[in-house]
Amino acid sequence: MLRGFYTAASGMIAQQRQQEAFSNNISNANTPGYKADQTSLRAFPEMLMNQMGGKEVPTSTSMHVPIQQPIGSLNTGVYVQETIPNFTQGDMRETGIATDLAIVNGELPDEAGSLFFTVQDTDGEIRYTRNGNFTVDGQGYLVTNQGFYVLDQSGEPIYTNGMEFSVTPDGLLQTPEQSVNLGVAYATDANGLTKEGNGLYAGDAADLPPGVTFSIKQGFLERSNVDSLQSMTQMMESYRLFETNQRVLKAYDESMGKAVSEIARLV
């Protein structure tokens, strides 16, 4: 019976974590460049159940031989193995703002590969993002909404000295004083990146390898790839499963209560 407690409780914990992922997706449905989180459930390792017994061997010494009779396998619940972002391309929304940029994927040789803007956080660390909702700070540098520098292909902050600049489809940012290539990085396995919040990812990404193509759209933002209707449906299903495990746990608790109070009193 105690094993049933653990199985039902693990199911409740797993559904709670799924609820957190679905809630986060829905709350970021309008966040530019946001990639929806996907959870995967996995069962705990199976245990092989055996019936322990013995057999008397008719010998002069009455030898007792232990015997194990296989009964079958038993799972002890599920858990959320990992949460992986879905890096599929989101729809494009036109804003008409010169500092808004969007990456449109072209040919990507790796199924799990993805393209990112390269930015630099306040600690000088390199981060990657699909959120092109940029602006120009008081010093004339192109920055994210968090104030992180947007980098060029050489890894240097991009100085625009205002909003009077243009970006070509191949990523060349042009101002009256200079022309630089946007720092677009490519991760062959985007699932290996670490999600840090605010649309930022940490990990290993590199310059574009041969065969990778893309285009930049100025005055556009990439929408979140969250399907709000599907996320709401999944949230309801997860909530119902949580309630089911809750009822099972309550039934076990009532049975244990009877075993302790009623059966013990009769004995």
Structure commentary:
Strands 7, 8, 11, 15, 16 and 17 form a six-stranded antiparallel β-sheet that branches. The chain has two helices and 19 strands. The relative contact order is 0.20. It folds into two domains: 2-83 and 228-266, no CATH class; 92-222, no CATH class. The mean pLDDT is 86. By secondary structure, the protein is an alpha+beta fold. The protein has helices at 2-27, 228-266; strands at residues 37-43, 47-57, 63-74, 78-85, 92-94, 101-105, 114-120, 126-129, 135-136, 142-143, 149-150, 166-167, 172-174, 179-181, 184-187, 194-197, 200-202, 214-218, 220-222.
Topology (elements, then pairings):
Elements: H1 2-27, E1 37-43, E2 47-57, E3 63-74, E4 78-85, E5 92-94, E6 101-105, E7 114-120, E8 126-129, E9 135-136, E10 142-143, E11 149-150, E12 166-167, E13 172-174, E14 179-181, E15 184-187, E16 194-197, E17 200-202, E18 214-218, E19 220-222, H2 228-266
Antiparallel strand pairs: 1-4, 2-3, 5-19, 6-18, 7-8, 7-11, 7-15, 8-17, 9-10, 12-13, 13-14, 16-17
Helix pairs in contact: 1-2
